[in-house]
Amino acid sequence: MSGQSAGRTTIVVDGVPLPEILDERMIHDVVHGFYAEIRNDDLLGPIFNGAIRPDDWPRHLARMCDFWSATLLRTGRYQGRPLPPHLALPGLDEEHFRRWLTLFGATVDRLCPADVAVLFMDRALRIAHSFRLAVAFSRGDDTLAIKPILKESL
After folding, report:
1. Bridge partners of 17?
2. Count of CB atoms within 10 A of residue 80's CB?
3. Nearest one of 64, 70, 14 to 34, comparing CA atoms
4. What is residue 17's predicted lDDT score, i.e. its pLDDT?
5. Backbone phi, then psi, for 15, in 5-degree steps?
6. Inter-residue contact 122 to 116 (CB < 8 Å)
7. What is the DSSP string of 106-123?
8. Where are the alpha helices (DSSP H) in 41-113?
9. What are the distances in angstroms from CA 97 to CA 7, 43, 71, 101?
10. How buried is 141 (Cβ within 10 angstroms: 0-12 exposed, 13-18 middle, 19+ buried)?
11. How far apart (Å, rounded) are the C-alpha atoms in residues 47 and 135?
């Protein structure tokens, strides 16, 4: 018998086994900590607070926990489409995504072990690039001009 407990499935993300310390509690802490930063941020706060009514924040945070649980823990809890609400935001550009990634990186670095922070951040960088491409495409901009934002450039 291996050293793993019976019934536990090893989750593999991008070819790497997921650290066992990454669990629903950590995802909850990251999501809630991150959005607390967002809501108070001079650049992003007005956008998020304008798009999400105060009484809708608990539901939004629960959906974001579902999103990250599905993304990293492969739970399948999130069935939504995260892109359309972002496409509806006027003026969303690289500056906003850079700030989002900076705050997200600071949150995961503060709350997670280094290997888990890397997993979160890698996924966030991919999501940001995908969203930036979709926003540019929806506006008729040249998507070939959209280069990925690298963690080292934040």
Report:
1. 12
2. 11
3. 64
4. 76
5. 80, 5
6. no
7. HHHHHHS-HHHHHHHHHH
8. 45-51, 57-73, 83-87, 94-111
9. 40, 11, 19, 6
10. middle
11. 16
CA–CA separation, 27 and 18 (whole Å):
13
Quick one: how many helices (H) and strands (E) in the chain?
A: 6, 2
Q: What is the CA radius of gyration of the chain?
A: 16
Q: How many residues does the chain have?
A: 154
Q: Distance between alpha carbon 143 and the CA centroid of its chain, in Å?
A: 22
Joined tokens for residue 106: 């600071």
Q: What does the pLDDT profile of the chain (154 residues) look like in tens digits?
A: 344 444 457 777 777 778 889 999 999 999 999 999 999 999 999 999 999 999 999 999 999 999 999 999 999 899 889 898 888 888 899 999 999 999 999 999 999 999 999 999 999 999 999 999 999 999 999 999 999 999 999 9
pTM: 0.88
**Bridge partners of 16?**
13
Q: What confidence score (pLDDT) does residue 86 get?
A: 87
Residue 99 CA to residue 97 CA, distance in Å, equals 5
Contact call for residues 67 and 82 (beta carbons, < 8 A): yes
